[in-house]
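Limitations

Structures in this collection are predictions, not experimental determinations, and the ligand pose is part of the prediction. Treat each record accordingly. The example that follows, with zinc ion as the small molecule, is included so readers can see exactly what is and is not provided: the inputs are given verbatim, and the output is the predicted complex.
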Amino acid sequence: MQCPCQSGLRYEDCCGRFISGQESPQTAQQLMRSRYSAYVVKQAEYLRETWYPSYRPAEFNLDDSIHWVKLDIIDALTRGQEAEVEFEALFLAKGQIDGLHERSRFVYENGRWFYTTGTQMPIRFKPWKPGRNESCPCGSGHKFKRCCAVLKH
Ligand SMILES: [Zn+2]
Ligand SMILES: [Zn+2]
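Predicted complex:
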């Protein structure tokens, strides 16, 4: 399967190798992408593991009513052991496309990047209900009714 982070690579060659634990992300952006993919493939354990312990919520469960459909990296910068990645992610909830626009912060410690927290920003579009025959907002090129409307990914 294609990697959910929309890198254009196969999942195993992209975020899959981090989520499976074979390798550690070398950059905060790779970690950001793989955390997004972990939300898509529902790997809550990976999300917990890559959350800096003092910021990690005591209770963390994936919200099954939300289906992530698209990731857009807007900006990424690294200063030594700290990094920031700004992204906007689209999700489908109750037939409507909505989004999350966040500037996330990361720290590098003991040879690994961790997510700490993020600042949420206003989304850059108006949430909308895609028509069944519209091309899917995930960018697959398929009609919505044959793609994310049936949650094939
Ligand atoms: Zn990926
Ligand atoms: Zn789609």
